[in-house]
Amino acid sequence: MMNKKIVITALFFLLVSHTAISQKQLNSPYSRFNIGSLELQGSFKSRAMGGVGIAMRDNNSIHYMNPASYSSLDTNSFVFDFGADFGINSLKQGDNKYSSNDMNFKHLMLGFPITKKWGVAAGIVPVSHGYYNISSNVSETDDNSVKGEYNSSYSGSGGFSSFFLGTGVNILKNLSVGVNMNIMFGSLERTRSVVPEDIDNYFTNIYESIKINGINFDYGLQYMTNIKDDYFLNAGFTFVSGKSYKSDYEYFATRSSYYNYIADTLDFSEAAAPIKLPQMYKAGVAFGKQNKYTVGFDIVSIPWSKSNIPGNEIYVANTITYALGVEYIPEKYSTAILKRIEYRFGAHLGDNYLVLDGHQLKEKGASFGLGIPLRRSISKVNLFVDYTQKSGSKSLGQHSENVITIGGSLNLYDFWFFKRRYN
Fold first, then answer.
1. Do 30 and 328 touch, CB atoms closer than 8 A?
2. Most CB atoms within 10 A, among 103, 187, 312, 323?
3. What's 195-218 look like in SS3?
4. Angle at alpha carbon of residue 396, lines to 395 and 400, rounded to 5°
């Protein structure tokens, strides 16, 4: 009965996720550029630990950032994980402040073993979002005023998502390898309008659209060794190959007046120019004591300077990100639920891939979370709170963004083909 409920629930959320994911509406002016604001990756367990996941592996979690971890799934088990988050973005530029919030479906993941030490997983996760809504009034005395007063507005929507299907297998006693096939899809729409206060002047509208789809692969390996007295040490590495995705790019600019409802086309272009995204290098280590605590550290390097994105290729730079996470479990097999709660802490620090006016944005953050077990079950509820600051240059007049994200996911664990003798 439990298996049927999980399957029905999984199919339902798969249908919901098809339309819900990557439609985040957290207002960020930095989403105007390239492929938008990049989403932090990882399950909610990883997010609570600062985003670590390259060397992480256990029998009831899906660590999709390294497909080699799928070999750790229990024989005859089934893992289903879906979650949503709520974000608050506070912007500050000098004395000006603004905030927005949004609740959004985050991920859906499924995992199960094929045989002992060979597992598979699949899921849908967000890659980036491109929502923003900005407006400003320019007076006749401003340097940017071409002729008279006008209102300038910018808006964007959409985002990119990825469906992954992967497998991981132990090829040696202490060595596991894996591969994910990633299908990336989605679109970004951006508009800019200039509306004059003087009805004798013309107003202009500019529309830009980027659609993308394509298949890419990432490869992973993990080396695991046991140290005396239940201590362990894991090392992991993943490589995501660079990829030129199929892309449809459209640019459309028009001019109109208050007296003429028919817009004049100033510029129009459309092309099937590919979007090239760079390769990624990720490495991590995890150390701890079985069923007691884990400490993980990851480093991620992405050469964004090798990318090619229509209309925005000058705004990118190479990035390096560091993540550190800790998990502590008082008594994993205690009959008291409070003693089985998993406590998680983490932090991350690194570069943002955007470069504006010659300055590369920086990011840093801290996180906390809980893994709350369900009664008489291995299943659990994973909660996390993450604070991330995205900062520009104050001397250049760039704003900072402070994002607080609160997320919750249901991690269901059950057994396939296992008949209970007693209810």
1. no
2. 323
3. EECCCCCCEEEEEEEEEEEEEEEE
4. 85
User: Tokens 């990035």 map to which residue?
Assistant: 319
Q: Is 235 left (phi over 0), alpha (psi -120 to 50) or beta?
A: beta
Question: What is the pLDDT averaged over residues 32-55?
Answer: 93
Token pair for 182: 């990633």
Q: Is 336 helix (H, G, I), strand (E, B) or coil?
A: coil
Side-chain-side CA neighbours of 378 within 13 Å: the count stands at: 13
In angstroms, rounded to a whole number, what is the distance separating the alpha carbons of residues 378 and 80?
12
More confident residue, 271 or 282: 282
Whether 264 contacts 254, CB under 8 Å: yes
pLDDT of residue 22: 46
Closest CA to 72 of 156, 178, 155: 178
Q: What is the pLDDT of residues 127-138, one digit of tens each?
A: 999 888 887 776
Identify residue 125 by its one-letter amino acid code.
V
Query: How does strand 175-196 pair with strand 203-227?
Result: antiparallel
Angle at 153 between CA 149 and CA 157, to 5 degrees: 175
DSSP H helical ranges for 101-239: none
Please report the beta strands in 357-415, taking only residues with DSSP state E, as ranges in sequence order: 359-373, 380-391, 400-415
Q: What angle do CA 177, 123, 71 make, to 5 degrees?
A: 25
Concatenated DSSP letters of 40-65: PPS-HHHHHTTT--SS---TT---TT
d(CA 238, CA 108) in angstroms, rounded, equals 22
Cα–Cα distance between 164 and 182 in angstroms, integer?
4
Amino acid letter, 355: V
Q: Give pLDDT tens digits for 284-321.
A: 999 999 999 999 999 999 999 888 887 655 678 999 99
252/191 Cα distance (integer angstroms): 9
CA 381 vs. chain centroid, Å, equals 20
Cα–Cα dist 308/321, whole Å = 21
Question: In 197-318, where do the E strands start and end?
Answer: 203-227, 231-240, 243-257, 260-271, 275-277, 280-289, 293-302
CB proximity list for 260: less than 8 A, separation 6 or greater: none
Which numeric CATH code is attached to 2-414?
2.40.160.60
Total residues found in the chain within this entry: 423
Q: How far is CA 194 from the centre of its chain?
A: 33
CA–CA separation, 338 and 367 (whole Å)? 21
Does the structure show a pLDDT above 70 at 268?
Answer: no
